[in-house]
Sequence to fold (64 residues):
Amino acid sequence: MQMLAVAVIKLLVISMTLVGLLRLIVFLFIGDAQNELAIRRLIGGARGAWRRNLVGLPESKRPF
Fold:
């Protein structure tokens, strides 16, 4: 059980590091704060965020 916990923690640390590196690479190469935000949303899997951003569209015209 303890080994499983250690494995899960290691996996979390590795994935967080990879995400951080990916964001850093994108930020360095593009250098655009807006794109960095978009990448962060993508990585965070925040599907609700872009739904909330479609403020101008009425409920019936939204693409979901």
Helices lie at 2-30, 33-44, 47-53.
